């Protein structure tokens, strides 16, 4: 018996979306398939105390050696994919329903003179065409009821059929045109069999032909002014469409296709392939690869096609291959696929309809696979240690940089310029110490000056906090994963301070510190004596950018007399690492764990900065001094701005001029003038494009 904890995924690795999960044994055989509305909650239930599990479930989880999952869009898709895989893998723990009944199938008894459509369970019989399995028998009956409008096939039992033939009167379905009534000779056995075969073709996925034919007949009937017949044909087409029930894991017209999706970043890419046969998802494959060379999405697709079909049999290449981007030499690749298949292969990007929807599902699985891979990679202590050692070696540091701070500047065409500071300790994000800044020293866009200001403000605060708390002896830096003082801290934690992140113990999180405050304002220490977080310096400062940004950061540190903190920059275009005073960058191998860590730090700083910038801009756009005027609604505010052109001009107007605006009385005009006078800025800060005041925001930690 296996210990389930040996293969238990962490909750953060499992998505909280609908999906299907598979348990495999040590030989990679699928032993159980299940579906879930929320994968995270459902899968976690299997890893509770074994004593609380049902005996059969306990046997399953101790037999399994791994668990994997596939995300979909809806519960219906999860249901259909679950049944498809139960049919394909025949898992030993999916033998029966919870009610000890077998899965129901929709069956057409083509072995009879007058074929019958019915729900069947149990062993399959020769000469009977089966569709399914389905989740519930009522779902089959609802589908059949819709389709009998177009394919009025017999559904009655043998006894009812014989009784109708004996009396010469059909059953109720025959009277309401949901049965062609072969029992009383309304159709010949040949005509009824043709109806049954058409029914089977539609259920097999060849749906487009029938719906198009019905719609064509409907238009023709309308042109001939046979409106009752046209309405009936319209209802028939709608019934077939409802029976199909659009789903991203079921395609029309018995499609045979492979769908390939790619999720990527600068260093890695995840690929997912769904194999669709007969309109149903019959298989799934995927892998994650390092980008050992500079390659774009089309190049990744070409490599995937080569790996997929290079060793495959010719019949394994489907009629269609749907991809997110076409290879550079599409014609040559298409010809190669056609040669492998022995007939024409359509290689294209899906643009609309069910195939595009299914491609979105494949893409979500690729994104989830890449995220899971990154989570596993980042959580591995050995990998993080190797990354820090590679960074230290590449940058010529004496010790591994156990605390890294990264800074990024964000703005929108020079407006709302902000900066972010993110902190990684022991190779993992320390979000409680993230900070964000507003650029206050100047106006406009200048990333170099902005970087100089932010670095100067942050480390001026560090020196002030260090002076307040006294000169402390530098603690010895622990190895990655060890416990002890915060690496590189300017002093020991205050007595009683606790809290840890990724095996590194430091002071407990302090209340939010407003990093955007002027640098010369010294925040008092907390009541328990703990110093503010800016008292802790990093071993490495990373800036998003190249030589100019690195030089600005280094200059800011030099001006403060700080010479024991390393600085580097990561340029996004070629992922080059720049050092101060070096004309040539340090180029780390693209497969380097050190480069991967620097990239994660830089990307996190960019995400944090742009999130703050967007929130600040949204707040500025929504704010207006007119909001404080009682009784002034949105319509009259817009009328004022439209009349004067901007808030600035409105502020300069007299009360009599404001009264000239339709709908504005003298009392309202006086309130408007008073509100604008009380909010007059010390310096010009009006957005002339929107006529709204750009309010100050002191930022703070998130």
TrEMBL record:
Stretches for region Disordered: 466-532
Residue ranges, compositional bias (Low complexity): 479-507
GO molecular function: DNA binding; excinuclease ABC activity
Keywords linked to the UniProt accession: Coiled coil, Cytoplasm, DNA damage, DNA excision, DNA repair, Excision nuclease, Hydrolase, SOS response
Coiled coil residues, start to end: 211-247
Pfam families on file: GIY-YIG, HHH_5, UVR, UvrC_RNaseH, UvrC_RNaseH_dom
Domain GIY-YIG, first and last residues per copy: 16-95
Domain UvrC family homology region profile: 259-557
Family (UniProt): Belongs to the UvrC family.
Biological processes, Gene Ontology terms: nucleotide-excision repair; SOS response
Protein location: Cytoplasm
Quaternary organization: Interacts with UvrB in an incision complex.
PROSITE patterns: GIY_YIG (PS50164), UVR (PS50151), UVRC (PS50165)
Chain ranges of the UVR domain: 208-243
Top-level lineage group: Bacteria
GO cellular component: cytoplasm; excinuclease repair complex
Protein name: UvrABC system protein C
Function: The UvrABC repair system catalyzes the recognition and processing of DNA lesions. UvrC both incises the 5' and 3' sides of the lesion. The N-terminal half is responsible for the 3' incision and the C-terminal half is responsible for the 5' incision.
């Amino acid at each position: 018996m296996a210990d389930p904890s040996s293969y238990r995924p962490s909750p953060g690795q499992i998505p909280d979306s609908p999906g299907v999960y598979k348990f495999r044994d040590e030989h990679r055989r699928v032993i159980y398939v299940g579906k879930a509305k929320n994968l995270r909650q459902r899968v976690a239930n299997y890893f509770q105390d074994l004593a609380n599990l049902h005996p059969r479930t306990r046997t399953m989880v101790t037999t399994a050696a791994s668990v994997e999952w596939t995300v979909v869009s809806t519960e219906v898709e999860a249901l259909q994919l679950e049944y498809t895989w139960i049919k394909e893998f025949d898992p030993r723990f999916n033998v029966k329903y919870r009610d000890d009944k077998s899965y129901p199938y929709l069956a057409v008894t083509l072995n009879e003179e007058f074929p019958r459509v019915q729900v069947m369970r149990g062993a399959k019989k020769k000469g009977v065409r089966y569709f399914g399995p389905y989740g519930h028998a009522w779902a089959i009956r609802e589908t059949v009821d819709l389709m009998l409008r177009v394919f009025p096939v017999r559904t009655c039992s043998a006894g009812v059929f014989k009784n109708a033939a004996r009396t010469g009167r059909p059953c109720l379905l025959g009277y309401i045109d949901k049965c062609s009534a072969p029992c009383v000779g309304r159709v010949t056995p040949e005509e009824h069999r043709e109806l049954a075969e058409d029914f089977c073709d539609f259920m097999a996925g060849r749906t487009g032909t029938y719906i198009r034919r019905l719609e064509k007949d409907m238009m023709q009937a309308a042109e001939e002014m046979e409106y009752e017949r046209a309405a009936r044909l319209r209802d028939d087409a709608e019934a077939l469409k409802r029976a199909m029930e659009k789903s991203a894991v079921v395609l029309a017209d018995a499609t045979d296709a492979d769908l390939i999706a790619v999720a990527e970043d600068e260093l890695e890419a995840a690929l997912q392939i769904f194999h669709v046969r007969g309109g149903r998802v019959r298989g799934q494959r995927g892998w994650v690869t390092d980008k050992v060379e500079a390659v774009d999405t089309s190049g990744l697709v070409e490599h995937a096609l080569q790996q997929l079909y290079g060793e495959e049999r010719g019949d394994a290449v489907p009629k269609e291959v749907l991809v997110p981007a076409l290879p550079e030499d599409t014609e040559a690749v298409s010809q190669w696929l056609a040669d492998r298949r022995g007939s024409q292969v359509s290689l294209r990007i899906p643009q609309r309809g069910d195939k595009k929807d299914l491609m979105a599902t494949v893409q979500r699985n690729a994104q989830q696979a890449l995220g899971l891979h990154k989570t596993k990679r980042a959580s591995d202590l050995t990998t993080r240690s190797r990354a820090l050692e590679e960074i230290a070696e590449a940058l010529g540091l004496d010790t591994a940089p156990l605390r890294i701070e990264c800074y990024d500047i964000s703005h929108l065409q020079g407006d709302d310029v902000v900066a972010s500071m993110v902190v990684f300790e022991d190779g993992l994000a320390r979000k409680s110490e993230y900070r964000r800044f507003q650029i206050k020293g100047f106006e406009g866009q200048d990333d170099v000056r902005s970087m100089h200001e932010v670095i100067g403000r942050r480390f001026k605060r560090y020196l002030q906090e260090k002076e307040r708390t006294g000169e402390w002896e530098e603690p010895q830096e622990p190895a990655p994963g060890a416990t002890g003082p915060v690496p590189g801290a300017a002093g020991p934690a205050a007595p009683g301070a606790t809290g840890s992140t990724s095996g590194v113990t430091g002071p407990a999180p302090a209340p939010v510190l407003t990093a955007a405050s002027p640098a010369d304002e010294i925040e008092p220490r907390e009541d328990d004596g703990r110093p503010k977080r800016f008292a802790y310096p990093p071993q490495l400062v990373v800036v998003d950018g190249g030589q100019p940004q690195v030089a600005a950061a280094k200059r800011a540190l030099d001006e403060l007399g700080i010479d024991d903190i390393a600085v580097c920059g990561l340029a996004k275009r070629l992922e080059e690492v720049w050092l101060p005073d070096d004309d040539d960058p340090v180029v780390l191998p693209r497969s380097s764990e050190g480069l991967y860590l620097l990239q994660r730090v830089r990307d996190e700083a960019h995400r944090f900065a742009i999130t703050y910038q967007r929130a600040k801009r949204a707040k500025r756009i929504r704010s207006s001094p007119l909001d404080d005027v009682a009784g002034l609604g949105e319509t009259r505010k817009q009328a004022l701005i439209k009349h004067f052109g901007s808030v600035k001009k409105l502020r300069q107007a007299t009360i009599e001029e404001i009264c000239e605006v339709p709908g504005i009385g003298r009392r309202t005009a006086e309130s408007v003038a008073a509100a604008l006078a009380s909010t007059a800025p010390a310096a010009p800060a009006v957005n002339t494009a929107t006529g709204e005041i750009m309010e100050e925001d002191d930022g703070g930690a998130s």
